[in-house]
Design brief:
Oligomer: single chain
Shape: globular
Radius of gyration: 22 Å
Largest sheet: 7 strands, mixed
Length: 437
């Protein structure tokens, strides 16, 4: 439930989870047909990488990447990786311009929010056959780079959200276990309200694509989806989705969540002061933010973590994000670029990156390492298995904004969830999924 982009989330997460772990635990140009894993590029051999690789990294991750590059060079002494750090808010535009001009780097790291628009340029190669295995990665983060059944990116790291709440306030309200269903979540919030918590639940009430993303997670918990299986049509106003929006809006209408906040950066003071008591689908980086605001160790004594409540029929879902490696089709050293990606996708490197920067592995096997154990991490790991990725189509930003605006009409203007989603569906159909209608 973030007003920040994944890039900014991940930047914060790098600091947050290192602290939390210590504290709490102690459309591409290839023409060949895809394999079952979506890969279709030429295979990459096992020889050492050579030559120069121009690497563009989005956001703050580039600050620590030289450490990993130095390790890669120990077994690939003939390669030179030249790193360019690009600010997150400039990355998509700079990369799109580079594709148009034919001045692309050899390898990029891109956040989930930017992948759909970048892949729509047709400027990237598919993942080579045999480079990695789809089954080794969490489905939600893997699916962010799939277009037309082909895989264009290899996930580097990921995260998943969960329910976070004040244990001391819950205890005062007579709550001993976290809510496990939508109905229980309402009862949970009502008990907190009765004990004087003004706005028990923190929702994403920015009424933009982040609100839409939170509603999407609840839709998934209710068996719904924003796109058809082929990702060719929007399916916003299905009965499952309408029911999910009715539930989301009811939390506000019943006084269990405020329609006016908190804004994302106000979440910590609202929770710390007791104005709110629980974050719905909250990001794990909040752990250290609470400690920054209230003193070291505060989160471990005041906050606990639980899986997001399930829908009426037991459906699960949690927001996920992260980013992936991608190789431009005009790359001059694809061989070395993909070899670096393969190396970074191995468990030891994924664990090492967590230790360095705090970002959590996209590779399932890396989570077996003792470094990836602890209260927060265990809940994140469980949530990743039920991750819900944002719609990876070029028009998601535009459609997400429309959905958010319609959600506000439901909670403020008295519009029904059905009417709001009917209106959103009509506008989404006019926009389409490719942006080329």
């Amino acid at each position: 439930m973030s007003h920040l982009t994944t890039g900014r989330r991940a930047t914060t997460l790098g600091v947050a989870l290192v602290a939390a772990a210590v504290l709490l635990a102690g459309c591409g140009r290839a023409n060949s047909e895809p394999t079952s894993s979506g890969s279709s590029g030429p295979a990459i051999n096992d020889k050492a990488a050579t030559g120069t690789v121009q690497l563009w990294s989005e956001g703050a991750d580039g600050d620590k990447l030289p450490t990993m590059i130095a390790e890669f060079k120990k077994t690939n002494p003939g390669v030179t990786i030249q790193l360019t750090k690009v600010p997150q808010d400039q990355f998509a535009s700079k990369m799109t311009a580079a594709i148009t001009a034919g001045t692309v780097p050899d390898l990029i790291f891109g956040y989930t929010e930017d992948q759909s628009s970048l892949l729509a340029t047709g400027g990237f190669d598919t993942v080579p056959n045999g480079l990695v295995s789809q089954a080794d990665f969490f489905p939600a983060i893997w699916g962010n780079s799939v277009v037309g059944g082909k895989q264009y990116g290899v996930p580097w790291y990921t995260y998943a959200n969960m329910l976070m709440y004040r244990t001391d306030l819950a205890k005062k309200a007579g709550i001993t276990t976290p809510p496990s269903t939508w109905a229980e979540q309402k009862t949970f919030a009502q008990k907190l309200k009765a004990q004087g918590v003004a706005n028990p639940l923190v929702l994403a009430v920015s009424y933009d694509k982040y609100s839409a993303g939170q509603w999407q997670v609840m839709a998934a918990q209710n068996g719904g989806s924003l796109l058809n299986a082929a990702k060719t049509k929007w399916t916003l106003n299905t009965p499952q989705n309408v029911q999910a929006l009715d539930y989301w809006a009811s939390l506000v209408k019943d006084g269990l969540s405020s329609a006016d906040g908190p804004a994302f950066l106000d979440t910590v003071p609202w929770m710390s002061s007791g104005k709110s008591a629980a974050i719905v689908d909250g990001g794990p980086w909040f752990a250290s933010w609470f400690d920054d605001a209230n003193g070291k160790g505060w989160s471990s004594t005041h906050i606990t973590y639980a899986p997001n409540p399930t829908g009426p029929n037991g459906g699960k879902g949690a927001t996920t994000g992260g980013g992936s490696w991608m190789v431009p089709s005009d790359s001059k050293n694809k061989d070395a670029a993909w070899k670096f990606v393969r190396w970074m996708s191995e468990a030891p490197q994924q664990v090492q990156w967590y230790k360095i920067f705090g970002n959590m592995p996209a590779l399932k096997a890396a989570w077996d390492d003792p470094a990836l154990k602890g209260t927060v991490l265990d809940q994140v790991h469980a949530a990743l298995e039920n991750g819900v990725a944002q719609p990876n189509v070029p028009t998601w930003d535009q459609v997400g904004q429309i959905i958010g605006q319609q959600m506000e009409k439901v909670v403020r203007g008295g519009m029904s969830a059905q009417a709001a989603l009917d209106a959103a569906q009509q506008q989404a159909e006019a926009i389409g999924v490719t942006g080329k209608q």
